[in-house]
Amino acid sequence: TDARKASGGAIASGVGLAVLVIFMLQNTDDVTISFLAWDFTWPLWLLMLVTASAGAFVWIGFGILRRHRRRKERRAERRG
User: pLDDT for 65-77, tens place per residue?
Assistant: First the structure.
């Protein structure tokens, strides 16, 4: 196989990023966000960027936790 060939995950990430950028470019209006006792106004594109970034951070975090758990299980199987 060719080492430069893109994986399915890389292609999906690229498509998702492109869709996010298109959505952000088309939605430049300001929106009011109410959270607990705070109200603030942000451009919708910024809200989408912050939300997507937070989601990606959580997704990556869960992946790291899953790999750590599997590594511990494999170590326990080798010792056991």
Answer: 888 889 888 888 8
Q: Rounded distance, CA 70 to CA 57, Å?
A: 20
Residues in contact with 40: Cβ distance below 8 Å, sequence separation at least 6, in sequence order: 32, 33
Q: What is the pLDDT confidence band of residue 2, given thresholds at 50, 70 and 90?
A: low
- The model scores a pTM over 0.70: no
30 φ, ψ to 5°? Answer: -85, 145
Alpha carbon distance 80, 77 (integer Å): 5
Task: Give the separation between CA 63 and CA 29, rounded to whole angstroms.
Answer: 34
Report d(CA 9, CA 73) in Å as an integer.
25
Q: What is the DSSP letter of 4?
A: T
